[in-house]
Structure formats: structure tokens, C-alpha cells
Amino acid sequence: MDKTQILEALKTVTYPGLSRDIVSFGLVKSAEIAPDGAVSVEIAVTTSKPEIPEQLKTAAESALAAAGVPAEKISVKVGATVPAAPGAGTPPPRRIPGVRRVIAVASGKGGVGKSTVAVNLAAALAQVLEEDGVAPAAGSVGVLDCDIYGPSVPMMLGAHEQPTLRGEKIVPPEAHGIKALSLGMMLDEDTPVVWRGPVVGKAIRQFAEDADWGALEALVVDLPPGTGDAQITLVQTLALDGAVIVTTPQEVAVSVARRGARMFEKVNVPLVGVVENMSWFENPADGSREYIFGKGGGAKTAAALGTDLLGEIPVSAEIRSGGDAGTPIVLAAPHSVPAQIFRSVAREILRRF
Asked: Is 322 annotated in some ligand binding site?
């Protein structure tokens, strides 16, 4: 066995919860073989989860043993460092009390249906949690709308009540059993948001730190498109468990989605996967599929990012009408094809976290 064979064996080891292997992730810092056949491997990870290093060590040892290295000749060392604060004097991201999972939904550009995916994903998570007997659908999932300049979650979720206060905490209202918080709940419909970066950051920090979400199994965070002040503030403020990248099939969306997703890698937020929206249109006359915006962009994006394609959502009038009416298609037509795909995506996310 030589070093190339060692690395090939280690390529079968994926980072816990993700599909990307530790070699392509750049986590294997050294792999050596001694004259007597002893193999020594050093792995370095940045994580705040103490169980990750031990899981990687066990998996790497098993992979080398499966490749024919005797157990007594295997030495795997895993070094772990806690993620550094994003900037000097900036406190590390913190967990929201009572919230088990925080999943960001992001996109490189606008117009790809990111908010539509976010609200339907939230509804799907609630349904799957109830189906699996984990938690009742009502009150187990929340949506935090951080798309400050285009807050569309209130309309899409039918959440028009203003938040209330409990002491000094903001209490998010519920719609369809889903807790939601958005700047759109606090502004008149025609009021433009003309804010500079520091004000945007302050608003997002207040939503993240001063809200009383209660006990949630999952909080879906709808980010604005791109990689500006809002996104940076959020990842510096909240400890995110993962990010879902939304794209459409055409190349212009795919290239921007890849660039936007790189931000999460730089701040040590795992990519859960890619959702391709507006994938195809089903011809009602004969059931054939028309790929209006091209084909395969989501899979190409996922491959470039070393993650998975979680689902392909078709173009559907029901999705559009559900968003306009304030009842996501997952709730309005739970047996429809899009609703089933959203539930499949939700189930995969819950399996990983």
C-alpha cells in the first residue's frame, strides 16, 4: 500500500451529516506509511461539536482496515479546534435557547424562489416531525425572515399579526401552527426599507437575540440573496447547523449560487445541500415535462460544492397561488407532487441533524 491508496481509502469517509469526503474537504493533513507497513494519518477539523473528532477517527480506522491495513498498524490522530470568532472583539455565534436546529435557506441571487422554499420547508418540517411522533405540528417549527429589503414571509405564510412583547422579549406570532418573525409584520405594506448596513445588522441581531421562540425542533432562517451585511451579521450572531442553497436550473443562477455558498464554507457552516426550484413544468395535456429554465443546474451546483441535491421543485401554479394566498402548497395541497418533494427534503434534513 502506498500514500495514494491510503487517500483512496480515506475518500470513503464522509464528514458526519454531509456527503463530502474528508480528503476533498482538505481535512487530511498527513498520510504516511512506514517501512513495516504501519499507516499513520493526521486529520484536522474545526468544529464546536465534541463528538465529531471521535466519529471521524473511528470511521478512518475502519476505512483503513477495510483496505487491508492490520488494526495494530493503524494510527489515526484527529485534532480539533473550535471555530474562531468572525472578527476581533466579536463574540462567537450563540445558540437560541430552546431551539434544537437552525437551518439557513440562502441563494446567490434573487428571483429563484428562496422564500417560497423557506416557508414550504418549514411547513414540511412540521408535518414530518408530527408524522414521526417527534412533536406536534403546531408550534414545533419557526421561520425567521431576515430578508430585510424584501420581507415576503408574512404574505406567503399568512402571518399578518404584529409580534407581541413578553417582558423584554419579542414573541413571534403563529400562522398555520408555524411561528414567524419578520420586519414585514411591523411595516406598512408600501413602506420601503431604506437602511444602511449597520441598521440592517442591528435589526437582524435583535430578531435573533431578543425573540422568545419557546421550544422549537427547527428554525428556518430566510436569508436575503447574496453575501452582504445581513448574511454576515447572521452567521456572526447565530450558530447555524447548516445551510440549504436554492437555485434554478439556468447557468446564470447556478454560477451565482456557487459563489454565494462559498461564504458558508468560510465561516464553518456546513452545506446541507441544494434545492433546485422551477425545475420543470408538467404539460397538463399529456403529462410531459418541459424544462423551461434548462436542466441539471441544481445537480451541477451540488457537485461543485461537494454536497447533495436534496430535491427538484417543479414550476406549479399551485405553488404560486398558495404563496399569494398565505397557505403554502405543503399545507394547501399536501398530496401534490411539490408537497411530497418538500417533505422528502425536510426528512433528509432531519435525518442529518
From this structure: no
